[in-house]
Each structure stands twice: as C-alpha cells, then as structure tokens.
Write a structure and sequence with these properties.
Length: 481
C-alpha cells in the first residue's frame, strides 16, 4: 500500500504555535521553467549520497494585558539521503512522464534545538546530551525526542518530478525493512520535512524563464487545510558554485474553522514567501528560503505573532566529527568532565589504565530465516592496563544519587592484552529491563578503581551511552519481552 503526496511539511517551532505550524507549513512547491525550454527533474542513482542542513527559526512576540514578551525557538537538522534502490512504480493514471522511482534512506547527524526568552536560553544538542539530573520534566521530554529523531532512519520513494511515495512495503517480493518504516509524526518532527516533496515538486512539462504555475492540495495530515502554491521561474543564479534556476513562490493556506483550538478566537498562517535554487545538471535542490507569518488571537485577549523562517541547504561534504566536553554530576555531588564524539562518550586513559571499549552486549540465538532473538543484555567495559599486573579492581556506578558497587566477571584476552569486565546481566523479559524497551537512550557513568602490583591506585570515570531506539530497530532481530 503506497500513499502518494506532493505536500510539504515544515517544522514546528513553538509550544502553542508550532503544533499547528508544523502541519500547516506543508506547502506545495513546484519548480519552474528555464529560458530555453528545459525540463527540470530530480536525478538519483543507486549508492549516491547527498547531505543537507535544514534550519528552522521562529521569532515570537506575545502580547499579554498590554505587555510585550519576545522569545525565539529554532531547530537545526543535519541529515543524509542515500539512494538504496531504483525501481519502477505503476500509477493508476498516466499523467506522469516517467514511472521511475528511487528509494531514499534518510538518516540524521547532529540535531540542535534552542529556546530563548528574556530570562534564559536553553540549547538541546544530540551531540552534547545534557545531564538528566539538570533537566526539568519538560526538558527531559525534549531531549528524549531529539535523541529519538537522531536515531531514526526511514525510507521514501522519490519521483523525478519531486513527488513522493510513502510505502508500507514496496511490493510482496521486496518488503521494506522494519528499520526503514515511516516514523510517527510529533510536535517536533515530521518525516515529510526531509523528503524531496518538502522542497520542489517540478512541473511535468518543459518550462522557461517567466513561466508560472499553480498547485493546490488538500492532501495534508488530517485534512487540516487547503494549500495553494503559486510559483514562477525568474532566472539563473549561481549558488554555492552550482548553476541554478531560481524559483519564487507564494503559498496561501485556507484554515478550516473546526480545526482551531478551543482557546483560539482567530488564527492566520501565511502567506509563505519562498525562493528556491535548483541545479538541473545534478538534479538537486541547492538552497531554499521560506518566511511565513503566523498570528494567533486567544479568547482571553492574548495575541501571539511570529515569523517562521526555514532554510534548506545542500552540504558538499559530510559534517566533521564534533568533539564536546560535557559536565556530569556524580553520586557524591562532585562534577566530572567527560569527552563525547558525535554524542557518544569517548574512551578514557590515566597513565597505565585505559578503557578501549564499553557498551551493552545483547545475548540471543539465531532462529529460522536468519532471524535472531535477543533475550538478555549485559553491560561491559574493556580495559587495557598496558602490561601492569592488577592486584585489585573495583567498579562503581556513580550515575544516580547513590554510589552502587558492581559485581563483575572478568574475561582476559591474552592475544589482545586486554580484559573485558562484564556486569549487570539481566533477562529482557524481566521488570528490571523495562527501560530497554521504553527509553530512547541509557547513560551510565562507571567509576573504575585499579591497583597495580606496586600498590599504585588509579581512578577513571567511563561514561557508557546506549542508543536504544537504534538497537531495537535492527533488522532481523526479535527482542524478547
């Protein structure tokens, strides 16, 4: 079952404004015509990768009893398209010039989200997770949502004109992998934002400079609104070294009264003004900007006004590794500085004591059809003592409010001159393992105290962070519950 959509879903920006803005920003964008009659098309080849940045910013002005309060909310997504397959699609009607389609895997890099007002500014960063002990309940929910999205990957089928198919399965002989299914929308995230339909849906006919076209659609989530986009191709432009066709757009939104929140007296969204730069040689959107005014009037007299700005930009190279130093408060009240690379803790070393690997081991057995069933988990840290003989070694969990001494089993690897320390083994079907099935990630900080044959004692703090959404979505895996 495939659902076709050519609508564009932008991102959400404010607690009250964004829920509706995220959905309503689903505009329809068609691309335009060139001077010498050209047909613009997206081009995809299996194995091809494209990197993009999507930035969304909302400046908010609230008027309450005559007083004005300003704030801003913004989100930046780094994401990648990978062409994983090429296929043909049969359409009920023959209004398309081509039935070629490409399967695009979307995966995410760094995600940053900020909230600022006159009193404070908070930044959530998937590459710099905040200590949960420092977050409010609302802050925890936001960080969890960002981490969920950062671990998400999914598939959409891209058509040459920019249309998109959202398949539950491609066909009976080529089912979509569980890890690639379309994720659920949230107030923070919509998968449509990262598909080609969210940028430029190109006209089916050849076009030239000066041509205009109009696209209307009510094929939007929950049929909240009708969207009408009017577009014009205005000329050539060089953007980031690419020879592009420049397209301008004005998008109007028709809001159905029954969709308004009961607290709202009036709501207006748009028109959205946009400009797009499309490179016909490589068949890619290079850059796009959008600006959409929003106004909300409440029954209690409050007025919220905002401008939602969205910027999309192709990145010629993948993002460089991001090294961050973060502070963590330990069970004894002290703070320790730990180094993270792309959101994951790095290994630690102090003189002859070094951690070379840490994580969560999953135990199971292989069943029919090359499928595996996970039934147990066990934490581990691999250490290298660089030739020192260890007389005594202790592991202490210092993550929570109280220190917890850990029992462990030791596995020496003489060929690699390292030792694995296994601890906290549990059955995935037990109540103590509920966090594995429910949480987005799990972080623990383990204090390692080692004494060598000379009586010298060293202490290391090793953070272990496990991306649980990613683990639970591994293809070919059944997790026992």
């Amino acid at each position: 079952m495939m659902k076709k959509t050519t609508s564009l879903l932008g991102g959400q920006m404010a607690i009250e404004l964004i829920g509706m803005a995220l959905i309503l920003n689903n505009g329809l964008i068609n691309s335009g015509r060139t001077q010498e009659q050209i047909k613009l098309e997206w081009k995809f080849a299996k194995g091809q990768t494209t990197y993009y940045t999507n930035e969304q910013e909302m400046e908010i002005r609230d008027t309450v009893q005559g007083k004005v309060f300003t704030s801003s909310i913004g989100t930046s997504f780094k994401y990648k398209w990978t062409v994983v397959l090429e296929t043909q699609v049969d359409f009920p009607s023959s209004d398309r010039s081509s039935n070629q389609a490409a399967g695009i895997e979307v995966s995410f890099g760094q995600i940053r989200h900020h909230i600022s007002d006159a009193k404070k500014s908070v930044v959530f960063d998937s590459y710099r997770p905040i200590d949960l002990k420092e977050l409010s309940t609302q802050g925890r929910l936001m960080q969890e949502e960002i981490e969920r999205v950062a671990q998400t990957r999914f598939l959409f089928m891209a058509l040459p004109d920019g249309g998109v198919l959202w398949p539950n399965s491609l066909d009976k002989n080529n089912p979509i992998a569980p890890s690639m299914k379309t994720p659920e929308r949230s107030i923070f995230f919509s998968p449509e934002t990262f598909a080609s339909s969210d940028s430029v849906v190109l006209p089916k006919q050849e076009i030239q400079i000066g041509d205009t076209w109009t696209v209307s659609s009510s094929d939007l989530p929950n049929d909240i609104t009708k969207v009408t986009g009017k577009y014009r191709i205005v000329g050539h432009a060089v953007k980031f070294g690419h020879n592009c066709w420049q397209i301008t757009g004005v998008t109007d939104y028709e809001i159905k009264a029954q969709t308004l929140d009961e607290n709202l007296r009036n709501y207006s969204f748009g028109p959205r003004l946009s400009v797009h730069y499309f490179d016909p040689e490589i068949g890619r959107l290079i850059y796009a900007e959008e600006s959409t005014p929003i106004r909300m009037e409440f029954h209690d007299g409050r007025i919220s006004e905002a401008v939602l700005k969205v910027r999309r930009q192709i990145d010629e190279l993948p993002q460089l590794p991001q090294i961050q130093v973060v502070s963590r408060r330990l069970a004894d009240g002290q703070n320790v500085l730990l180094t993270y690379r792309d959101g994951m803790p790095m290994n630690q070393r102090h003189a002859w004591l070094e951690t070379v690997l840490s994580g969560l081991g999953v135990h199971g057995e292989q069943t029919l059809g090359n499928q595996s069933t996970y039934s147990g988990i066990e934490w581990s840290i691999v250490i290298d003592t660089h030739g020192e003989q260890i007389r005594d070694l202790s592991l202490i969990d210092v993550t929570g409010e109280n220190e917890i001494g850990l029992e462990y089993r030791r596995e020496d690897h003489s060929d690699k001159k390292v030792t694995t320390l296994w601890f906290d083994s549990m059955d995935l079907r037990s109540d103590e393992a509920r966090w594995f099935h429910e949480e987005t990630s799990k972080e623990r900080i383990i204090k390692i105290i080692a004494q060598n044959q000379n009586g010298e004692t060293l202490t290391l703090y090793q953070a272990i962070r496990v991306p649980l959404v990613s683990i639970r979505s591994i293809d070919g895996i059944v997790i026992a519950k």
